[in-house]
Amino acid sequence: MSSSTIPLGQAIRLALVAGTAGLASTTVLAQDATPTTLDRIEITGSRIRQVDVESAQPVLAISRADIERQGFSSVADILQNLTAVGSPALSRSNVLSAGETAGGTYIDMRNLGAQRTLVLINGKRLGIATSGYQDISSVPVSAIERMEVLKDGASAIYGSDAMAGVINIITRSNVDGVTANVYYGQYSQGDGARNSVDVIAGWSNDRASLTFSAEHTEEKGVWARDRWFSQFPNTTRHPGDSWTQISQWGQINGLKGPGCTAAAGCNYSLDRGTDPTNPANYHLSDLTPFTGDLSNAQEQMHLISPLKRDSLFLDGRLDLTDDIRLTTQLGYNKRSSTRQIAGYPLQSSTEGIGRMSADSWFNPFGNHHGYETPTDIAWNRRTWEVPRVSTSDLTTWRAVAALEGSVEVGERYFDWEVGYQYNRSELLQHATGNLNKERVKNAVGPSYYNEATGKVECGVPGAPIAGCMPWNPLVPYGSNDPNGLTGNQALIDYLFPPEVSRGKTTTRNAFASIAGTVMTLPAGDLGFAFGVETRKEAGEFIPDPLAQSGATTNLAAGPTGGGYKVNEAYLELSVPILADLPGARELSLSAATRHSDYNTFGTTLNSKFGFKWKPIDQLLVRGTWAQGFRAPTISDLYGGGSETFTTNYRDPCDTVYGASASSAEVRARCAADIANADTYRQLRQGGVPITSSSAQTPVPFTNGSNPDLQPETSTSRTLGLVWSPTFVPNLNVALDWWKIRIDNTIVSDHPNDMLRDCYEQGIASRCTGFTRDPVTGIVDTLKYGKRNSGFLETEGYDLELSHHLDTDYGKLTTGWSTTYVSSYLERTTNDADVAPEPRNGIGSGFRVRSNLTLGWDVGDFGVSWTARYYSGVKERCLNAKTRPDECSDPDECSDPGVQAPWYAGSRDYNQRGSVTFHDVQFRYNLPWDATVSVGANNVFEKYGPIMYSQPNSNFSYYGGYDIGRFMYMKYQQRF
Fold first, then answer.
1. How does DSSP classify residue 551?
2. Which residues fall within 8 angstroms of residue 453, CB to CB, at 6 or more apart?
3. pLDDT at residue 333 tops 90
4. Rounded to the nearest 5 degrees, what angle is found at the Cα of 734, between the Cα atoms of 730 and 736?
5. CA dist., res. 740 & res. 153, Å (int)
6. CA 55 – CA 734 distance, rounded (Å)
7. Are 814 and 803 in contact (CB under 8 A)?
8. DSSP run (H or E) holding 594
9. Do the bridges between strand 810-827 and strand 324-341 make them parallel or antiparallel, or are there none, so unpaired?
10. What is the DSSP letter of 91?
11. Contacts of residue 685, Cβ cutoff 8 Å, sequence gap at least 6
């Protein structure tokens, strides 16, 4: 065959700096000799095959050697440590996340959202969930030859979702022999163990090749109680903060009982080890952490959820003739993940449950035990005996079959491909730890002591409730009571039904393309690529019937189901303008356009233009302008409503932390909805006032879909320089400016945005989606859905530097990659009068991410050192009044001359410092064709700063920081 992709790895190696640094731009200029006998190859970002690996757009290549010289054992860990990759909202440290995407791992380039980064395998789409997320944990590391990261928009080339960038994972092929790998590592605390075993084997002859890989990986979990930053809600620095009264000890609420002087009544808890039916055995609840009647939910939560993966991959290639090849890739992956959070914080005020009846045998202030004014009682209890556990099993099949080849027309060759792709994912989720509301209602309803049986029974004498088991929620955790939960499996089985949810997605894609050159211009060949695709996406997610009906305390959710079809055609051109002239060693233009016809919203046309200019051999100037789009997902269009306890929730009407505290205008708007607006406090879980700027809601809110959504649109620009000076051999420097703006964004909306727009911005139309409790004033119902609104815009620079030096003492390599984000703006409304809000330098919006890798290889020995830098950020202060030492910028925006236009009132911020994590690896090639490597990630056991705003996490710590020193060993045997 005169054109093939077989030597692609060889070509890339010639274009990249060899060695441990490795993570460098594919562009390498004149100081590296250009081979003259290489076949044409296809680089991510273009469908045109060519010998020249230089492109108008920035592409980062991660080779197989780079992968093996890192201590990361998963695709997610490798990619999430790239400087251009942001922090996905869904990760394994977001243990409170629910739904079909829980347990997966996702990549978010430029912090624009994981759904705006397209992931490919061998140039074909990775399967998606109904919400559009692509789970890269389904990709086995052992099957990867290299990864190419396009840091530019590419919808004109690949279609929907390629707005922030494209990650193309190229799998291994044409392998000869067998290679086996064993990996084991764990944190220095003795937890979070990771082990993997994989084998890759291949066979080939002149016309055919087979490559097979199998991998088993297991990653143990890490408990929140075992790290200082997650052991308590506000870390060990403030271990007594934010404990909740909904505890494992049980509590009576709002009772005007013994010793109570409060007009609204008081809360009571049982004296440990005493008779729960005796009113004299209850004391006013002790709100002292550790020794009192409070609960620390962190004790039962995962910090990192455990994960298992089993993967198989087969690559087959057969030359049917000298010019036609059959290619096939078959993949199987099963991912099992488990997450645990604390037992359910049950309250009698929960809809469908109600107070404990005065006729309940367990009510100490009821009719059965001589209390003089019998009454129903409100109560709460965290079911500590039964933590909430959910397991997620995702099974994925992938098959791609294609015929490819080349045809000679005159003196020109044209490469063609026609094929079909099929992806299928099946999800099975099991959940335990949620209570059946009707059974709880009966269990705490009227009951009596049956002298004949010696047991308490539901109902009244002569009319027992068949099948009911009575429960006393006032019996504390650890007490062996026949009507308590501790050690009572029959009662647990009665109250806590298992729930099973199922999901399925399929992708069917038929494709055909042709590429080649149509004419020879004075500066070179005019190249083109043309192709057509027809793709069908279908999916469903069916929650357990109990969850759909709201019969349990699980978050209620409706079924999601639907699909869409898209027909697409694209054309790409590569036009050489000048070559081998003074001041123009090369000048070429590229152009691409793609027409997409969806059966949901209609058609869209997206184009891209680029240029390359070499004024001298050692310098390349490049740039692109690209349009992009993201089509609404199945979940966006056809998703069933679901409930969620919103985390990081902020009510502007809170008189301590909200805008109402410093803005009379906001206070006046709040007063229209809240009777006690001058003293109003936002409540968190447990019904108590918040003690920091945000908290989880005490009641669930409802999220839904919108069948009338339109696609997001984007415009991206890049401009860069690549320099390879002759006076420093083997040095390559690339600097690229980039800017991306996304309009018509599909906003999942957010309770914070709704309340901010309503009370701070004064947008009346945004005040209709929620109601407030007439007594407490809190938002007690809120419904929000998807909508096209607002924009995102981010801008910055990427710097890539690589160098290698051969000495008498071995090869020294250097790789330095830095991303600087100069601006990030977001507006979630179409109201032009509303100022956009900056996200840069706040929370997880790091201005600078930088990685430096140094390597030394001599003989059979090698060592590499990597430093990973995160710049400092700001976050809202925990409490500027009571914790001034943790508030570096109090009232930062209080001066009217510098007041932030996107926020009504003043805000207090705290500067959080930068952090650098260091990794080291030592490796040695053994005489029997094996390699052993030992290393440590975060070798100095450095920790990031406390972050009470919990960015990308459910704890007071950024979810992307290292959580300890991770030590590992790898052994590779080649046969």
1. -
2. none
3. yes
4. 175
5. 8
6. 12
7. yes
8. strand 584-598
9. unpaired
10. S
11. 244, 246, 345, 645, 695, 696, 697, 698
874-893 pLDDT per residue, tens: 998 888 888 888 888 776 54
Q: Sort residue 601 into left (φ over 0), alpha (ψ -120 to 50) or beta.
A: alpha
Q: How far apart are CA 126 and CA 820, in angstroms?
A: 29
Contact 533, 420 (CB under 8 A): no
Q: Chain centroid to CA 782: how far? A: 25
The 10s digit of each residue's pLDDT in 475-529 is 999 999 999 999 999 999 999 999 999 999 999 999 999 999 999 999 999 999 9
Q: Which residue has the tokens 């054992």?
A: 73
Give the helix/strand (H/E) hosting 64: helix 64-68
Per the CB < 8 A criterion, the answer to whether 394 and 138 are in contact is yes
What three-state secondary structure class fits 512? strand
Token pair of 702 as six digits: 């409802």
Alpha-carbon dihedral of residues 737, 742, 747, 752, nearest 10 degrees? Answer: 50
Write the CB contacts of 106 (distance below 8 Å, at least 6 apart in sequence). Answer: 76, 88, 90, 91, 114, 133, 134, 135, 136
The DSSP bridge pattern shows strands 117-121 and 165-171 to be: parallel
Amino acid, res. 876: R
Q: Distance (Å, rounded) from C-alpha 596 to C-alpha 594?
A: 6
Within a 13 Å sphere around the CA of 670, how many CA atoms are in the beta-carbon half? 29
| C-alpha to C-alpha distance for 966 and 962, rounded to whole angstroms | 9
How far is 928 from 904, CA to CA, in rounded Å?
A: 70
Minimal CA–CA distance to 771: which of 756, 782, 760, 757? Answer: 782
Per residue in 259-309, pLDDT tens? 888 887 899 999 998 999 999 999 999 999 999 999 999 999 999 999 999
Angle at 133 between CA 533 and CA 183, to 5 degrees: 110
- The structure tokens 């065959």 sit at 1
User: If residue 286 lies in a helix (H) or strand (E), which one and from where to where?
Assistant: none
Burial 225-250 (b: 16+ CB within 10 A, else e): ebbebbbbbbbeebeebbbbbbbbbb
Instruction: Assess contact for 690 and 654: CB atoms under 8 A.
Output: yes
**Contact in structure between 239 and 231 (CB atoms under 8 Å):** yes
The arithmetic mean of pLDDT across residues 778-804, rounded, is 92
Q: Is the Cβ–Cβ distance between 630 and 619 less than 8 Å?
A: no
State how far the Cα of 75 lies from the Cα of 1, in Å rounded to an integer.
Answer: 33
Cα–Cα distance between 395 and 311 in angstroms, integer?
A: 10
From first CA to last CA, the distance across the chain in angstroms is 30
Residue 904: per-residue pLDDT:
61
Burial of 36 (0-12, 13-18, 19+ CB in 10 A): exposed
- What are the start-end ranges of the E strands in 91-132? 117-121, 124-125
- Give the gyration radius of the chain's Cα atoms: 31
Token pair recorded at residue 98: 């629910």
Q: Give the β-pairing of 194-204 and 177-187.
A: antiparallel
